[in-house]
Write a structure and sequence with these properties.
Blueprint: H1 8-11, H2 29-39, E1 55-59, H3 71-89, E2 93-95, E3 99-100, H4 105-115, H5 124-148, E4 159-160, H6 164-179, E5 183-193, E6 198-200, E7 205-219, E8 222-226, E9 235-240, E10 254-256, E11 263-268, E12 280-284, H7 289-297, H8 324-338, E13 341-354, E14 362-371, H9 375-382, E15 386-388, H10 392-402, E16 407-408, E17 410-411, E18 422-424, E19 430-431, E20 459-461, E21 465-466, H11 468-472, H12 475-479, E22 494-500, H13 504-519, E23 524-530, E24 533-534, H14 551-558, H15 560-569, E25 577-578, H16 581-605, H17 618-639, H18 643-671, H19 677-695, H20 700-711, H21 728-750, E26 760-766, H22 775-780, E27 782-788, E28 794-802, H23 804-811, H24 815-823, H25 827-831, E29 836-839, E30 842-845, E31 851-859, E32 862-869, E33 872-877
Parallel strand pairs: 1-2, 1-22, 3-4, 9-11, 15-23, 22-23, 24-25, 26-27
Antiparallel strand pairs: 5-6, 5-14, 7-8, 7-13, 9-12, 10-11, 14-16, 17-21, 18-19, 18-20, 26-33, 28-31, 29-30, 31-32, 32-33
Helix pairs in contact: 2-20, 9-10, 9-13, 10-13, 14-15, 15-16, 15-18, 16-18, 16-19, 17-18, 17-19, 17-21, 18-19, 19-20
């Protein structure tokens, strides 16, 4: 079969190719990557709003501008960039925006740490200015890392959530949901961090194990067990299980709270665990979520014993002003002195902590702003999205099913989007700005019109600010062109959201909730979930474990492309990935191997006479069959976001198929001055062209360098290869050729022969006639010929193998003369041993299985070795 794959002269009449002697022997990682990063233009990656191409908008996660673009960010951006580059090559109009989620606790805490202050030590505006300045500097550092890693970001769609043009949309979304009844203000128990002095949402509570003390004490005649005696002042009831026989008849009684003296009722509830502690529990406002449930269910009193700073309030009596921990210790001492502390025991429990500062949270009743959770709407909308991997949907589903309270969106901090609300001082009416007035800061700005209810002109602005997830949960609306008014944006929905599994319950959940509420639609067609990066020790990276690896550390030694290979090949999509330096080294070695292959190929292509020569020879056609298989495999993998599968296929093709098999077999023809050499050059040129386009999304710098030397063009301006080569004969015969050459090279190795040593006459008997253009012979340094049928083999006895384990014990001193006598036997008797044998003039019995004949073969009188490879027989002549 003769197929002309690419008409090179027609494609590029000014073909440029660097001679091999101009290519450095060693691939200059730093030099190449920096050179191409300087050459690439930002505008080449801009989304074109007027393009007729199908759109592919990616809702990228806006990281907190900490100044460190950590390895987890980098893994996520690897995934995004693989997709963005691939989709551009497939003809899509791609938007790969870069956002920065500036607001919130991380920035405030960093400012407090940097300047040794708290948010209350300076004015609100001064504190905001300090946060903005820190954020701006950190963004610049992280931009540099993004560029160094070769990510093809659309910088024309960069957004910064702390800038007015973004957070005015956050405020607009708040107002739209408020007017629709999806946002409300109410006093309600909320999770509260007393270190950060703010409410936090359930999704921001991290549960950690700890050992604590369970204290048993006398509660007016009933034994109570508690881990939080400091909440005794907030006790509002004692609860028992209705079927607990120990407490029959106590329901409705009133008990006096020890130390504090107020009376509380005894109630029954099936949620009480009779097997925990004494089986009787005190209900406090609030020790945990169960307290909140009982408080609501039984319409109990509210007693606030702990304030926003974690300090005991006036109802704690003599303990007022103490920290909760100090109060706990003092109450236990007083219980012991009063003789009511019965016993103590250590227990293990899981404690909710602030996601940022790790402080154990309190549940406080506060007036806060909430978003209504319409669970069914969220789940129905989420089901319209394709989840990759599919099982990640279950995480969102489980989270939605477990939510017991609405989303608390107000925060008692400063550096965040202001809640755009005023209250009339005269009548308390809520006053809202118009869309045209946004953005507003109600602590600074004033309403432009009098109170609509009473005509008053004095207002108090809302001091609370919005949860930062209120900013980032409209990222998809922002990048698709939403102006803050009702209606779907022009490029909505996005085609893809890429994010980590750790923020499914926050960013994914909140985005789905908000887009459903704001534009009545799902936000993206697909969501791609990546795993977490673990240290070499298998644990989550952290300063305390000293297992943090920065992308800059890796790139400084091995380059961005090696890091990107690690990202692609480290794990299946959605799985956690453990960092291992050996993986980086392996990636770098693969690039070295590819560079050596490319230099070898270029050296032969520059001697090429006819670049458009047809591919005619078996080995060359076989290479293109395998290349076609690889294109199909990599394309399927990239379509399914299976980057590890794509990289594995590319490595196997380049390293094994191309280098170990094809080049080793065909290089003799490449060095020869024969007509068939042009076929090999055409196959190699096609292979290099296709291979570097397949590699371009994963290792863009290396692919660009090689492709530019090959064609003079940018690989990132090329289309994804739609290369198909169907040649069943080449597949069958080529597989047989490769297998046969590999076995004969192993034959040489096993006999201690150099691989280039002469092998003599080799005849390969195959089921079909095969014409390999002499490739097998050149590869093996042999007179190799292909025949059909089977060889006419003549078996001969070439010697004897003795079993000394049989001969030694049986014959002892006669063993050696016995063996000499056996060797003197005629071949037929060596094959069929006699019962006795004359040894030293004496007839002795021949022990069973004392020896076996060595069988050799002859073909046409020449002694040969025989290899059997399935239905193929190979004979190797001993004469040269």
């Amino acid at each position: 079969m003769s197929i002309n794959i690419f008409h090179w002269k027609e494609r590029d009449n000014t073909l440029k190719m660097s001679p091999s002697h101009k290519l450095p022997k060693n691939y200059d990682i730093e030099g190449v990557e920096r050179r191409w990063q300087d050459a690439w233009r930002d505008e080449d990656y801009y989304f074109d709003p007027g393009s007729a191409k199908p759109q592919f908008v990616i809702d990228t996660p806006p990281p907190y501008p900490t100044g460190n673009f950590h390895i987890g960010n980098a893994l996520n951006w690897c995934y995004i960039d693989f997709v963005a580059r691939y989709k551009r090559m497939r003809g899509f109009n791609v938007m790969f925006p870069q956002g920065w989620d500036c607001h919130g606790l991380p920035t405030e805490v960093k400012v407090e740490e940097t300047y040794g202050i708290t948010k209350n030590d300076v004015s609100r505006e001064k504190f905001r200015e300090m946060c903005r300045n820190l954020t701006t500097g950190n963004i610049e550092k992280m931009r540099a890392t993004i560029r160094r890693l070769g990510f093809s970001v659309d910088w024309s769609h960069e957004y910064v959530t702390m800038l007015p043009e973004y957070y005015k949309k956050t405020q607009a979304s708040f107002l739209q949901m408020l007017r629709a009844g999806d946002i409300y203000q109410s006093e309600h128990p909320v999770n509260f961090c007393t270190r950060c002095e703010t409410a936090i949402a359930f999704a921001e509570v991290n549960y950690v194990p700890r050992t604590t003390t369970l204290n048993y004490f006398d509660f007016d005649g009933i034994e109570i067990a508690t881990t939080r005696p400091e909440l005794l002042a907030a006790c509002v009831a004692v609860a028992v299980h209705p079927e607990d026989k120990r407490y029959r008849g106590v329901k409705g009684k009133r008990l006096r709270v020890p130390i504090f003296g107020h009376q509380v009722p005894v109630i029954e509830d099936v949620a009480v665990d009779p097997n925990f502690g004494s089986g009787a529990v005190m209900i406090c406002t609030f020790g945990d979520k169960t307290d909140v449930y009982w408080w609501k269910q039984h319409d109990l009193e509210l007693r606030k014993a702990i304030d926003r700073k974690g300090v005991m309030t006036s109802i704690a009596g003599p303990y007022a002003g103490m920290s909760s921990e100090a109060c706990k210790e003092a109450i236990l001492r007083d219980m012991e002195e009063a003789g009511i502390l019965k016993r103590q025991e250590e227990i293990e429990q899981r404690v909710g902590t602030c996601w940022r500062c790790k402080t154990p949270i309190e549940i406080l009743s506060e007036r806060q702003w909430f978003v209504k959770i319409h669970r069914d709407d969220v789940l129905d909308t989420a089901r319209k999205i394709s989840w990759v991997p599919e099982h990640m949907f279950t995480r969102l589903e489980n989270w939605a099913e477990s939510m017991e309270w609405d989303w608390c969106i107000s925060r008692q901090r400063i550096f965040a989007t202001p809640i755009p609300v005023w209250f009339c001082d005269a009548c308390g009416e809520m006053v809202l700005p118009t869309w045209e007035d946004l953005p507003v800061d109600p602590t600074v700005d004033r309403p432009k019109k009098p109170c609509p209810r009473c005509g008053g002109s004095e207002f108090t602005g809302e001091k609370d600010v919005l949860d930062t997830w209120m900013d980032s949960s409209i990222s998809v609306l922002h990048v698709t062109g939403w102006d803050g008014r009702s209606g779907k944006p022009p490029f909505f929905p996005a085609q893809l959201r890429s994010q980590g599994h750790d923020i499914i319950r926050t960013w994914a959940f909140y985005t789905i909730l908000r887009t459903k509420a704001l534009v009545d639609s799902h936000p993206w067609d697909q969501i791609l979930i990546n795993g977490m990066v673990l240290g070499e020790d298998g644990f989550k990276m952290s300063k305390s474990r000293n297992n943090i690896i920065s992308p800059e550390e890796i790139v400084g030694t091995y380059g961005a492309d090696a890091f990107r290979q690690w990202g692609a090949g480290g794990a299946t999509t959605g799985s956690d990935i453990m960092f291992n330096w050996n993986d980086i080294v392996a990636a770098s070695r693969f690039q070295t191997k590819l560079w050596n292959i490319f230099r070898f190929v270029i050296g032969h292509l520059e001697r090429e006479v006819d670049p458009a020569a047809p591919v005619t020879e078996l080995t060359d056609r076989w290479l293109l069959v395998r290349l076609s298989d690889t294109v199909a495999e990599v394309t399927t993998a990239m379509e399914g976001y299976q980057f590890d599968r794509a990289l594995k296929a590319l490595r196997e093709f380049a390293w094994k198929t191309l280098a170990d098999d094809y080049i080793e077999i065909a290089k003799g023809r490449l060095y020869a001055e024969e007509n068939s050499r042009a076929s090999a050059c055409s196959a190699l040129r096609t292979t290099m062209d296709v291979l570097f386009r397949l590699l371009a999304p994963i290792i863009p710098h290396f692919a660009e360098e090689c492709y530019h030397h090959l064609t003079g063009r940018s690989v990132h301006s090329e289309a994804w290869p739609e290369f198909a080569y169907d040649d069943d004969e080449a597949r069958r015969h080529g597989d047989l050729l490769v297998k046969t050459v590999a076995e004969l090279r192993r034959y040489k190795h096993d006999r201690g022969m150099a691989l280039n040593a002469p092998l003599g006459h080799v005849t390969i008997y195959a089921p079909e006639p095969i014409d390999d253009a002499g490739d097998a012979g050149r590869a093996l340094n042999a007179d190799a010929r292909w025949n059909t049928g089977t060889p006419r083999l003549e078996e001969i006895v070439s010697g004897v193998d003795f079993d000394m384990a049989v001969i030694g014990p049986a014959l002892r001193k006669l063993a050696r003369p016995f063996m000499e006598a056996v060797k003197a036997l005629p071949p037929e008797q060596i094959r069929n041993p006699p019962a006795t044998l004359m040894v030293n003039g004496k007839e002795i019995p021949v022990p069973r299985e004392a020896f076996t004949p060595k069988i050799a073969y002859r073909v046409a009188g020449e002694e040969v070795d025989v290899l059997t490879l399935g239905d193929v027989v190979v004979t190797i002549g001993h004469s040269t």
